[in-house]
Design brief:
The protein is mainly β. Helices cover 0% and strands 54% of the residues. The chain contains no helices and 12 strands. The radius of gyration is 17 Å and the shape is globular. It starts with a strand and ends with a strand. 23% of the residues are buried.
Amino acid sequence: MGDKRVGGNEAVIEASEYADGSMPFFDSSVVATVETLKASSGRLYLLEVSNPNVDQDLWLQLFDVSGTVTLGTTTPKQSYLIPAAVQQGAAVKRGAFDRSFVIPLQFDNAIKYAVTTTPAGNGAPGAGVTLNASYR
């Protein structure tokens, strides 16, 4: 995998994967458009989502579907609340959702995602959210 020996017994992990063998994933503008994180079966180890939308709670929908996903019709495997950002004077404190899965979340077909204004709907956020994930 990404383990290389250097000198004595030190192990260096390549930047493209984590120590557990999972791969990092980043999307800087997730909206109400279904995207594919992994096109085949896989496992999610970590999710971190940041919401810049003031006073707009959003939902990260995850799908275990290899074919077409239709937002508002296809039932998500999981749906997670991403709290709204909060205006604090001139500054905005982004809303965030963080989840590490002790037992990874298994997807048998593919890992797809979108962000909407309801848990299983198709309403678009005012601005895209940032998604970081770890998968295998």
